[in-house]
Here is the input.
Amino acid sequence: MIKEVKYLVYLLIIFFSIFFVIKFYLSESNFKRSNKVILQHRNELDNKFNNLPIIKSDTNNIIVYTNEVEDFKNKKSRNFWDLLKTNDK
Here is the structure.
């Protein structure tokens, strides 16, 4: 008997805790409070972003194009066996 009462009390505690949590999170006051906090953070971020200095870009003409591909293509290919053949003659 005591065991059943104990389980009933546990179930009631769980039920009421879930009920009150849902009631709180779905309440109008919680929505207003959370919206107020979100707006405050958004305003703070807007103020911080508006006060950022704009830095002048100094990245013009920093890429130097080279002709390494053409140099590689024009390079004479050397094979070990070809070098031995030329030395044997």
